[in-house]
Amino acid sequence: MRFPSLDLLARHALVVLRRFPWTLAVGALAAFAAIVGSLSGTDEAWERLAFVAALGLPLTIALTLLGETRGWASGVRHFVVLGGLLGLAAFFLIWPGIDRRHDAIRYLQLSAALHLSVAFLPFLGVSETIAFWQYNRRLFLGFLRAVVFSGVIYVGMVIALGALDKLFGVDVDGETYFRIWFVVAFLVNTWIFLAVVPERLPELEHDREYPRALKIFAQYILTPLAFTYLVILLAYLVKIVAGAQWPSGWIGWLVASVSVTGLLGFLLVHPLRPDPAEGWIRTYARWLFIGLIPAALMLLVAFWKRILPYGLTEPRLLGVVLGLWLLGIAVLFTVRSGSSIRVIPVTLAAVLLLTLYGPFSLTRLSVNSQARRLARMLETSASTEVGAREASAALRFLIDHNAGEAMARAIGREVPPVDWASVPRYGSERDSLARMVMELAGARYLPEYAYQPGGWFHLNGNGPISVTGYAWAVQLGTHDATRHLIDGDTVQVVPQARGDGTARIRVGRDTLFFDLRPVADRYTDSVPFVGSNAVERIEIEAAGGSRRSALVLTNLSGQRAGDSLATVSWVGTLLLGE
Q1: Could you give the CA distance from residue 457 to residue 38 in angstroms, rounded to a whole number?
Q2: CA angle at residue 72 from 68 to 76, to 5 degrees?
Q3: 373-388: per-residue pLDDT in tens?
Q4: How far is CA 36 from CA 103, 233, 480, 491, in A?
Q5: Residue 536: what pLDDT?
Q6: Residue 379, number of CB atoms within 10 A of its CB
Q7: What's the rounded Cα separation, in Å, for the pair 88 and 33?
Q8: 376, 446, 457, 366: which is closest to 411 by C-alpha?
Q9: CA 453: distance to chain centroid?
Q10: Of 269, 333, 531, 316, nearest to 424 (Cα)?
Q11: In the chain, what are the helix, strand and coil shares in percent, each to the nearest 5?
């Protein structure tokens, strides 16, 4: 076996560059933007640019191949690809990033649709032949090869840099490894993959090659897994029918597993179906799609159970959309076993794009649903604890989506002008805005993590500490067993009993008591569990002791149970006078 020379590899790489210049350009842009975005203090726009540039990889590949199969002139092909990139530029301008969940879901939708377009766009509008399968088979294997090759390249470079660092004392910044990964992932991996993208796609109609390893993988790995999942699903269906139970929310993961493994196995062995010697394939396909029908129905019922009381959100609605798509595919291939396999990626991409923006978008439908939920709670049960909790949750959803108009419709009042871009995802500022809106509606607001007795909370009180009037400052905490010596007296934290909302600190012969319950009552109405910051200094005067003392809290975590406080931990600075 002769290995290709470096000159041949260089010439082949140049051929790839000439064929896919736009793809490699956006790959380089994505790597550069990711590197710049990883630097501290840089504008967040660089991170968004890296994400959007990554979308250009599948988009430019699909449009380039579409132009090749249609026989467009070079200038026309470049014009079409440029038009697609201008569309991504528009997406960059309106997409705020992945900080909020619904924006991250929108990005994943678009990314999945663009990757699916690579599978079918070059063959769109022409009758399906074996060339379609051969093309996607080469893409699938080429992608796996590119991942392995680029992974080996990255690991090799990491080991080489690590050796220089550890053996020769060369200072290698830890960020360097991440920057190398960006280059390898966006540029090197893409270049390797593009090298196997076939040319003259219609000629693949005469290709009858079928790798034996592919058949073994599908027949002895994917097929048994898919049938195992189906058996479990059907057994669970019998259980819930016999016990009159609702399907568990965890059912989604099992349905996703059987769908991915089952459909992938079906697609990989599709060309072998006409072979009389491969009767197992026809049996597998028939029972796979029959089994997917009850699986999709259970998935839809599980989501319906969640949506009915709590309304639509993007993840729930996406689950419903994908469940309906899976049900449609299963029914289609059960009724018409000879249907075109191209319908699978085409319909899935269409569904993802139709629910991306516009009147049928996941976000628009979810916002409308939560606005109706808020209005219903305000009219019927906002005065109760449960109703106030549900109304507050719906309002937070609308605030997170900057849905001022929907809020106004729900409460029947105009909402004062708000700089929505400055409202954080968590924290007292969002809760203050929500409380103001609920007051306009004449209802009570309950914060996300402090809405009920026994709710968990976490307070941060970071900031400079003034020691004026005190002689000593000692950092202590719940789990600090250290004995500190101050002016001849021992200072030590006294272990607390579960359910006691006080902090005890022994100073010499005195025991100082600090009541934490008023702090929890004051701040947990506005500060949620995650990423919270109390803007005021959290200081507690001591009860007991012969000298002036105070505890300035840095962190306080606990769980309220009625009027009592089960403190989990606290960290702070003890201030002691003379």
Answers
A1: 32
A2: 115
A3: 999 999 988 778 788 8
A4: 22, 47, 41, 49
A5: 54
A6: 12
A7: 15
A8: 376
A9: 31
A10: 531
A11: 60, 10, 30
Q: Which residues pair with 514 in a beta bridge?
A: 503
> Is there a contact between 526 and 428 (Cβ–Cβ < 8 Å)?
yes
3 state SS for 168-191: HCCCCCHHHHHHHHHHHHHHHHHH
Residue 449's pLDDT is what?
A: 57
**pLDDT at 531 (0 to 100):** 37
Q: How far apart are CA 260 and CA 528, in angstroms?
A: 38
Q: Is 452 helix (H, G, I), strand (E, B) or coil?
A: coil
Q: Using only the alpha carbons of the chain, give its radius of gyration.
A: 31
pLDDT tens sequence across 92-150: 999 999 989 999 999 999 999 999 999 999 998 887 778 999 999 999 999 999 999 99
Rama region for 83: left / alpha / beta (φ>0; ψ in -120 to 50; rest) = alpha
Residue pointed to by tokens 């990757």: 115
Max mean pLDDT range (299-303, 307-311, 327-331)? 327-331
Are 41 and 50 a contacting pair, CB within 8 Å? no
Residue 551 in tokens: 């505890």
Range in 4-8, 71-75, 139-143, 441-445 the model is least confident about: 4-8
The CA distances from residue 390 to 184, 540, 562, in Å, are 47, 34, 20
Token pair, residue 425, equals 């995802």
pLDDT bucket at 529, cuts 50 / 70 / 90: very low
Q: Is 508 left (phi over 0), alpha (psi -120 to 50) or beta?
A: left
pLDDT digits (tens, 9 = 90+) for 100-110: 999 999 999 99
Which structure tokens are listed for 520? 């929890």
Whole-angstrom distance, CA of residue 470 vs CA of residue 6: 74
CA distance 345 to 118: 10
> Average model confidence (pLDDT) for the chain?
86
* Rounded Cα–Cα distance for residues 561 and 456 (Å): 9
Kind plus residue range of the DSSP H or E element containing 421: none
Q: How far is CA 5 from CA 16, 79, 152, 555, in A?
A: 17, 35, 20, 63
Residue from 139, 277, 271, 282 nearest 207 by CA: 271
Question: Each residue of 208-244: pLDDT tens digit?
Answer: 888 888 888 888 888 888 888 888 888 888 888 787 6
Residue 206 Rama label (left phi>0; alpha psi -120 to 50; beta): alpha
Identify the DSSP state of 414: P
The letter for the amino acid at 441 is: A
- How far, in Å, CA of 556 to CA of 25, rounded? 50
Per DSSP, 219 falls in state I
Task: Identify the H or E element spanning 42.
Answer: none
Residue type, 543: A
Q: Alpha-carbon distance 514 to 379, whole Å? A: 43
Q: Helix, strand or coil for residue 575?
A: strand
H and E: helices and strands count for the chain: 19, 9
The 3 state secondary structure assigned to 191-215 is: HHHHCCCCCCHHHHHHCCCCCHHHH
